[in-house]
Amino acid sequence: MEKVKAKDSVTSISIHSSRVAACVVALDEDNKPFVLGVGKADGKLLGGKGILNIDALSKAMMEALSIAQSESGCRSHKVVASIAGGSVESELSRGIVKLSSKGEEIKPKHVKSALKIADAIPVDRVKDIVHSIPQNFIVDGQPDIQNPIGLHGVKVEIETLLITAHTPF
Q1: Spatial contact of 140 and 93, defined as CB atoms under 8 Å apart
Q2: Nearest to 138, CA basis, from 108, 106, 163, 166
Q3: pLDDT on residue 157
Q4: Alpha carbon 121 to its chain's center
Q5: 3-state SS record for the chain
Q6: Whole-angstrom Cα distance, residue 104 to residue 149?
Q7: Mean pLDDT confidence for 159-168
Q8: In this predicted structure, what is the pLDDT of residue 1?
Q9: CB within 8 A of 48, min separation 6: which ones?
Q10: pLDDT above 60: residue 116
């Protein structure tokens, strides 16, 4: 079998209470997945109330990922992560940026500002935002816009899905 290119592989990272596992996978010529590399790192990472030590978790993730990528011989451009446990939650948020009253071209800075506002919603003191996933843009009330950059309008909104995790510190 010929060497798999990084762009053709996907890495999965699974975070559990005492272990992080990483797996690099690609599809064979019959479109069936096959494992290129696996890595794991152990430690006390998650407790009943969430992440116990963010530095230890980060180190374990990097170690597992490094082992899997070394074994596979490639660094994936696509990564999927999962965190086990009831400490992970999601909630919707919205950020709105008003442009000039006459309308103007929407630029990346406007999208970044809207995203920053969406991420600034109050989250419990014992929760941290792990990830913010843009879901939809709305320009001047028009929903379902995939990419507003280059469009003209007076208001740009972003709807995001916030993934949060309980942190006991």
Answers
A1: no
A2: 106
A3: 96
A4: 18
A5: CCCCCHHHEEEEEEECCCEEEEEEEEECCCCCEEEEEEEEEECCCEECCEECCHHHHHHHHHHHHHHHHHHHCCCCCEEEEEECCCCEEEEEEEEEEECCCCCEECCHHHHHHHHHHHHCCCCCCCEEEEEEEEEEEEECCEEEECCCCCCEECEEEEEEEEEEEECCC
A6: 11
A7: 78
A8: 47
A9: 87
A10: yes
**Whole-number pLDDT of residue 161:** 86
Q: How far apart (Å, rounded) are the C-alpha atoms in residues 89 and 129?
A: 10
| Residue 42 to residue 61: CA distance in whole angstroms | 10
Q: Would the pLDDT of 94 be above 80?
A: yes
For the chain, what percent of residues have pLDDT higher than 90?
Answer: 34
